[in-house]
Write a structure and sequence with these properties.
The longest helix is centred in the first third of the chain and has 10 residues. The strands form 2 sheets. A 7-stranded mixed sheet has the order 2-1-3-4-5-6-7. It has a two-stranded antiparallel ribbon with strand order 8-9. By secondary structure, the chain is of the alpha/beta class. It is built from 3 helices and 9 strands.
Length: 173
């Protein structure tokens, strides 16, 4: 998912998604197209409120938003400072930590710039407690390999360099 590329089966026509991401950032695609394809509502957050937590929260409440995604650091602030009235959120860009919710599905996304959007996701279900939130498993059509410095595939659980393969990887990487 950004808001959904990997998780569109969770969206319905009754969902109301808040689009917070800039249209110049590739992650905005996951906010826009999946909800429109499902027949739901897309609510584009005005740029003047995108850095104001209180105004963002009020936008979510006023528009009866059911799903919302933004950068990890911003999402951690929203989840830890507001009783978010949504059923799910997505976060990506940095390590997700220190969040939990009894009623919100939290979707942690990972995708380096050279992969044109998300490559992995990990879902924290409502009420689930996770101490060290992982980046998750590869999305469809994504291959993640952990390699040694000399380019050899490492056994599961061995630290190394994460290499991502698939059609989403930019040419030259």
């Amino acid at each position: 998912f950004t808001l959904s590329i990997a998780d569109t089966e969770q969206l319905t026509a009754s969902d109301r998604i808040a689009s917070h991401r800039s249209f110049s950032f590739d992650a905005h695609i996951g906010d826009l197209y999946p909800i429109l394809a499902k027949g739901g509502s897309l609510h584009i957050m005005p740029s003047k409120i995108r850095k104001d937590l209180d105004a963002m929260y009020q936008f979510i409440v006023d528009n009866k938003i059911t799903g919302f995604g933004c950068t990890t650091s911003l999402m951690m602030l929203m989840l830890n400072n507001y009783d978010m009235p949504v059923s799910f959120v997505t976060a990506g860009g940095e390590k997700l930590s220190g969040v939990e919710s009894n009623h919100i599905r939290i979707i942690n996304l990972y995708g380096p710039t050279e992969c044109t959007n998300d490559s992995t996701l990990y879902v924290i279900e409502p009420g689930q407690k996770v101490k060290n939130i992982p980046i998750g498993r590869p999305l469809h059509n994504v291959i993640c390999l952990v390699m040694s410095k000399d380019g050899k595939l490492l056994p599961q659980g061995t630290p190394g360099e994460l290499c991502i393969a698939g059609v989403q990887v930019g040419k030259g990487y």
